[in-house]
């Protein structure tokens, strides 16, 4: 592989990233078509149910006769099965493409090497693994969902400089600044669902939408074991799909679904298994401390974002303590500092 190959694959990864929040539950995929050292077509998977990246990139090529002498870069193995669209491997073959570079193999059992095999059987030269680690990070939600049979879980909370995330008796307190607040809404558009526990829902009465950032609202998830939350709360306003996980029984009402769990088994493994069945690939967990601490204790998380404010409370509900020393990333959002950890 050459420096030019790496440059083109990075361009394909950048294109793939443009589908964040829109391609789900499909993976993020970008594609670049080159001929004699210049780009002649590019595309990405823009919307779930719409044309795949390869379709858009090939359609952008002004002179299809060049495809037989072109090199195609794609961030994920071309699909080999009929879903909402025909197989992209077949399209590449039909268009006469003879040279394909792939970043990641697709772990989906419906593909899992079959796309590569189909291309090679048709005489196409296929190279794999270029910028593989970068591709896995980009599609970490998709890979976690396929390989661990559960959603990718992002834990997030804001804490004061003296280690509190709420006032005494769970009194709601605005901890983070305006820029961090906007970032939180952006993060909500990037994950398929958002989860809170009973106390957070009761005391904060959150909307759990992304009203302050352009993008799709996440599916709302609330744990309400005994169905004790007031029906007047925002979570039950029918403004976006909402799932209530409970030990009681109640029929689904429109886009408000009730899922009854067994009291005999651990709650979170049941909940995550049900979300996997529903094809929910990522969850942003916004609290409260009981939910966050339980997921940390059980190792049921993948990424943690802690927003630390310079302000102090002097007392209240302590933030979770995780004991992790290795930081993945640290940056500032206005007056606040953000610490990002990845599960070891």
Automatic annotation (TrEMBL):
CDD domains: Riboflavin_deaminase-reductase
Residues where NADP(+) binds: 158, 200, 204, 288-294
Binding site residues for substrate: 188, 208, 211, 286
Textual note on the cofactor: Binds 1 zinc ion.
GO molecular function list: 5-amino-6-(5-phosphoribosylamino)uracil reductase activity; diaminohydroxyphosphoribosylaminopyrimidine deaminase activity; zinc ion binding
Cofactor(s) needed: Zn(2+)
Residues binding Zn(2+): 52, 79, 88
Catalytic reaction(s) noted: 2,5-diamino-6-hydroxy-4-(5-phosphoribosylamino)-pyrimidine + H2O + H(+) = 5-amino-6-(5-phospho-D-ribosylamino)uracil + NH4(+); 5-amino-6-(5-phospho-D-ribitylamino)uracil + NADP(+) = 5-amino-6-(5-phospho-D-ribosylamino)uracil + NADPH + H(+)
GO BP, one annotated term: riboflavin biosynthetic process
Family: In the C-terminal section; belongs to the HTP reductase family. In the N-terminal section; belongs to the cytidine and deoxycytidylate deaminase family.
Protein name, entry field: Riboflavin biosynthesis protein RibD
Natural source organism: Hymenobacter persicinus
């Amino acid at each position: 592989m050459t420096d030019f190959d790496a440059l083109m694959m990075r361009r394909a990864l950048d294109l793939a990233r443009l589908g964040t929040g829109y391609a789900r539950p499909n993976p993020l995929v970008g594609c670049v078509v080159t001929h004699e050292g210049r780009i002649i077509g590019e595309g990405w998977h823009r919307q779930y149910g719409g044309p795949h990246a390869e379709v858009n990139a090939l359609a952008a090529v002004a002179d299809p006769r060049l495809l037989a002498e072109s090199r195609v870069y794609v961030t994920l193995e071309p699909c080999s099965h009929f879903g909402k669209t025909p197989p992209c491997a077949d399209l590449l073959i039909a268009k006469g493409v003879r040279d394909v570079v792939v970043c990641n193999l697709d772990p989906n059992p419906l593909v899992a090497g079959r796309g590569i095999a189909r291309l090679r059987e048709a005489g196409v030269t296929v190279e794999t693994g270029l910028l593989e680690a970068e591709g896995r990070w980009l599609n970490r939600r998709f890979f976690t969902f396929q390989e661990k049979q559960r959603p990718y879980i992002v834990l997030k909370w804001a804490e004061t400089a003296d280690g509190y995330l709420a006032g005494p008796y769970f009194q709601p307190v605005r901890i983070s600044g305006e820029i961090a607040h906007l970032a939180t809404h952006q993060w909500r558009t990037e994950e398929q669902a958002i989860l809170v526990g009973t106390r957070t829902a009761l005391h904060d009465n959150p909307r759990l939408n992304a009203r302050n950032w352009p993008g799709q609202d996440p599916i709302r998830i609330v744990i309400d074991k005994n169905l004790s939350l007031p029906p007047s709360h925002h979570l039950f306003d029918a403004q976006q799909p909402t799932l209530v996980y409970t030990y009681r029984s109640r029929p689904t009402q429109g886009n408000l679904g009730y899922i009854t769990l067994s009291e005999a088994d651990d709650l979170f493994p049941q909940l995550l298994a049900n979300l996997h069945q529903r094809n929910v690939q990522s969850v942003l967990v916004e609290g409260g401390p009981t939910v966050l601490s339980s997921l940390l204790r059980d190792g049921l998380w993948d990424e943690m974002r802690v927003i630390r404010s310079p302000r102090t409370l002097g007392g209240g509900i302590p933030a979770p303590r995780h004991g992790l020393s290795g930081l993945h990333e640290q940056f500032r959002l206005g007056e606040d500092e953000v610490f990002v950890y990845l599960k070891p």
